[in-house]
Structure formats: structure tokens, C-alpha cells
Design goal:
GO molecular function: 5-carboxymethyl-2-hydroxymuconate delta-isomerase activity
Organism: Dechloromonas denitrificans
Structural class: alpha/beta
CATH class: Alpha Beta
CATH topology: Macrophage Migration Inhibitory Factor
Strand content: 25-35%
Protein name: 5-carboxymethyl-2-hydroxymuconate isomerase
Number of helices: 5
CATH architecture: 2-Layer Sandwich
CATH superfamily: Macrophage Migration Inhibitory Factor
InterPro entries: 5-COMe_2-OHmuconate_Isoase, Tautomerase/MIF_sf
Pfam families: CHMI
């Protein structure tokens, strides 16, 4: 963990929105948290939404929503710092599009108990050797 899931409306052009670049920058923000999140557990993905309704549905509004799912045990300060830095990067990433069209950006952090998860990951070993 963490897993970062972006949902974005299909009226945003993936090339203009640079979704692949967004994912790379997102992972780097999480890596830069100084060990708060193990590198080998970081996952980011984006889901393009075909079916959605924004506001009253009369305008071609767009949105991007990020959900950062993390395991428990991190301090409130560490979660706030990560959330602030991630949302700042998201806002900067979409700034040009935000200036041109209606766009809602949002993010939430979801913390869950390790008791309700199952994991198997041999990626961590690569980073333990370094």
C-alpha cells in the first residue's frame, strides 16, 4: 500500500490531461514522503468514466477524483502532508485545463485496518536490497 485510484470523465482528452504523466508524478510524490509509504507497495491507476452526471447534467462539466487508500498506522501529520502535497501536484497538473473549461478536482484519503486485507508482493525485496 498505498493504492491511488483516479477516476476521470471521458470528456477529458487523456493526451491533453497527460494521465500517464499524472500517474508517474503521483508515485513520485508518495515516494518523496520519506519512507512513509514503502516504494514496492505504491500503485496508481486511472479509470476513465463513460457514465456519469455532473451537477444538473446540462453542461459538459468534467471531474477528476483521486482516492488514496492506505493502511493504518501513519500519523495525522504524515497523512496531511502527503494529502496536501498530492493535491497540490494534482491541481498544478490540471491547471491549464482548469483555466479552459469547467472542471472539479477532488481527493480523499481512505485508511483501513490491516485485518481486512490480504497481500502477496515480492516487489518489496527489490527495494530492501538497495
Amino acid at each position: 500500500m498505498p493504492h491511488l485510484i483516479y477516476e476521470y470523465t471521458d470528456n477529458l482528452d487523456p493526451a491533453e490531461a497527460d494521465i500517464k504523466g499524472l500517474l508517474k508524478k503521483s508515485n513520485q510524490v508518495l515516494i518523496d514522503q520519506g519512507g512513509v509509504f514503502p516504494i514496492g507497495g505504491i500503485r496508481s491507476r486511472a479509470i476513465r468514466l463513460n457514465d456519469y452526471c455532473v451537477a444538473d447534467g446540462t453542461v459538459d462539466d468534467a471531474f477528476v477524483h483521486a482516492t488514496l487508500k492506505i493502511g493504518g498506522g501513519r500519523s495525522e501529520e504524515a497523512k496531511k502532508k502527503a494529502g496536501d502535497e498530492l493535491f497540490k501536484m494534482i491541481s498544478e497538473h490540471f491547471a491549464a485545463i482548469y483555466q479552459k473549461r469547467t472542471l472539479a478536482l477532488s481527493m480523499e484519503i481512505v485508511e483501513f485496518s490491516e485485518a481486512g486485507t490480504w497481500k502477496q508482493n515480492n516487489i518489496h525485496a527489490r527495494y530492501k536490497k538497495a
